[in-house]
Amino acid sequence: MDMNKSSSAPLLGQEVKEQNQPKQPQPLAPQSQGRTLQHAAAIMIHGELKYKLLHESNIQVCRISHGSNVVNKLLNLKFMRRWESHNIVLGDSTLFSRTPQGYMECPVPYCSITDIHPVSRWEAGQSSCLRIVLSTGSLLLQASNVYTRDQWLHSLQWKRSIHRYKKILCNTTRPDVFMREVKAMIDMTMTACVQDQEVYQVPLEIVSDILSQNADVINSVAHENIITAVAPLLVNNQPSPEICAFFSKHCRNSPRSTIVLEMFMPVIQRILKHNMDFGKNPRLQTFVRDFILALHTKNNSHEAMAQFVDGMHGPASECPHPRVLPNLVAICLASIATYYQDGKSIRVQPDINCEDSDGSADEAILQEEESMLCFLQMLQLTADYDDWLPSLSAILLPIPFPKQGIHDKGLTSRLKYIIRKFAHDKRCEVHTAVCGVRDGKAGWLDLYCPGGPACDDGGELFSEMLKQLISCCCRRRRFLLSVTPRLYDPVLLLALRRNVACMEVLCLMLEMDVLPTEDAKMQVVQTLQSTIEGHDLYMKLCEKLSALKLLQQKGGPKSLSLPSKSTDADVAQIFSTGPLGNLEILNLAFTHVTSGCAQTLVKLPNLKVLNLWSTQFGDKGLELITEHMHGLVSLNLCETQVTDEGLRCLVDLKNLSHLNLNSTPLTTRTCKLLLGSLPALKTIDTRYTDA
Q1: Apex 113 CA angle, 108 and 117, nearest 5
Q2: What is the mean pLDDT of each run of 10 residues along the chain (691 residues)?
């Protein structure tokens, strides 16, 4: 085929030659039957009618093998036409039938088609006809309605055009021809009347093949021109690995190219919003990494990166794209881990005056450090968004940094900004992330304690973390038991240095009896009494313990029921009136008590039966009583505010024989866990649950 002649072939919207044929397809009248089915193949986008791309369909076919000068006359001779039914397939290079016989015995190459247009001059009732003009005659396709006809028209035009562009681009050796045809192909794609993922994906595949196979042409063309041409297709499509590699190379070679960075931004946003697994396409991750490094080279790098993170988060108070943060953090963590693979560390001030140092080597080291610090800065920026903190704290909970990084003050000193954000957050799911991933496992709390590998502030951040933990959900014996073996000495040291938070922790250790020996208890008492603040806290603890001993003395009733509408304050008031050491049965059913009353309930030494039916008692209170009240034999949680997650802590009550979980969110999994963990259990009420 003559390439020059082919390049002048009519494109989309240029084939209709009938005088009375409108340029845009006209919608059917509202009264037309089957209108819903006809519109199913077409959608309206920005005021234009778009059709779903056809790959194959059943249609009536007629072939007229005559010269073009007599075709128009034959079109009006109804008795000269004989129609055949075919399942026509629109292939990559040909039009063919699933049953190759009759008119469609041989495939019709797209390159043999000289024109495609609807036939408007037709007898009544057969106006949905499409004419494909060939060098030897015409191929007529009779559709069931106008919409189907136009769907065939635009699908054929797109298939024919994309086949032509692919043939030219894969064979051209001239850079000017390459760029002209790439721009024409993408313009055709963006204005096509077919709406389908393949319409955008096929041109990207063509460009990707050329990038990987035709390096001579690519190197002869300005890379910015290719990027500018391809960028519109990537707004709603993932770039191929070849395109990612091409973009990454440009980010490395021209990091300050403002125009290109602006064009990359929509592509980066789509990757971060929609990527499911960087492992399946690592070049996506490399491209995003190089783009972030390019942002970091700007004169106002911090502002540029802050604007980028803000754009990824969005203007709302909560980010609407749940994959953005995990993808962004994954790239940062991978880049930081790569830096430490060769045993590097961050130098606070490089020794530029050293006579033996190699200037070029020193500059290379500085560049590597700057690259790593760029991703640390990105992590810090993500911590500025409150709605991201729960997910960020969960990702960083297992301490995902390599051992070399944990012992590098250059890294850990910069991580303090993020950890401090966690420690000051009021949400339990966030501030508990400074602890280990499980009890007994070291976490950020251990790393930043005095003597820990990351501590460089005398324990300031450590005490901030402790203060938040013990003032909220970690004011529990179980927590103190898990951290005392590891943190006893650092807490004791800071208490001597008048750290109030650590003094409070020592008081809790005494109150909850978690210290292993009498010598340890005497040492804690001596430490508290060595300062004015500690002495005051110890005196308050002594008064509290005296009141507790009075409450636990033998005496009082064995059974007690509080009136309905009683509150937590009422429970505390009645328990302060005298000894209740004999109390074994407590009925709080239909009262207004909450988890707050658990602090009072755990003081009862002999309580065996607890009824909390239809109260506001929840998970926090349940965790507390399961930690302290191991003597319970009967517990009623019917219609309380506990969750399925909270019910799992009941496994600690080994003496339970009767358990009422009626009308709670109990699941089958948790029910099986309880049945297998409570050896004394005789009855369990699971009515109106999912178990």
Answers
A1: 115
A2: 36 34 38 39 57 91 70 52 88 93 92 88 65 88 90 93 91 88 91 86 89 80 84 85 89 84 88 89 92 90 93 93 95 91 58 43 72 92 96 94 90 95 95 86 92 93 95 89 91 94 95 92 95 94 87 86 92 84 93 92 91 95 92 95 94 94 95 94 94 82
Cα–Cα distances in angstroms (integers) from residue 91 to residues 52, 98, 140, 197, in the given order: 16, 11, 18, 16
Query: Residue 656 carries which side chain, given as an amino acid letter?
Result: L
Say which residues have a Cβ less than 8 Å from residue 685's Cβ, sequence separation at least 6: 638, 659, 660, 661, 662
Phi, psi (rounded to 5 degrees) for 315: -75, -20
Q: Are strands 609-611 and 634-636 parallel, antiparallel or unpaired?
A: parallel
What is the rounded CA–CA span in Å between residue 604 and residue 548?
A: 9
Listed residue (443, 439, 441, 440) closest to 393, CA to CA: 443
DSSP state of 629: -
Which runs of E-coded beta strand occur in 500-575? 559-561
> How many separate helices (H) and strands (E) can be counted in the chain?
29, 15
Nearest C-alpha neighbor of 100 from the set 113, 89, 115: 89
Q: How far apart are CA 189 and CA 230, in angstroms?
A: 11
Alpha carbon of 329 to those of 212, 236, 272, 288, 309: distances in Å?
30, 23, 10, 12, 11
Half-sphere exposure for 326 (CA within 13 Å, toward CB) = 12
The amino acid at 652: D
Q: What is the pLDDT of residue 121?
A: 60
Six token digits for residue 142: 């009779």
Q: Hey, which bits of 74-196 come out as E strands?
A: 84-90, 94-97, 108-109, 113-119, 129-134, 137-142
Q: Which two tokens stand for residue 351?
A: 């020794």
> DSSP for 609-622?
EEE-TTSB--HHHH
The length of the chain is 691
Phi, psi of 43 (to 5 degrees): -130, 155
The per-residue pLDDT for 225 is 86
Find where tokens 């005398």 sit: 458
**Of 11, 303, 291, 363, nearest in space to 161 by CA:** 11
Q: What is the pTM of this model?
A: 0.74
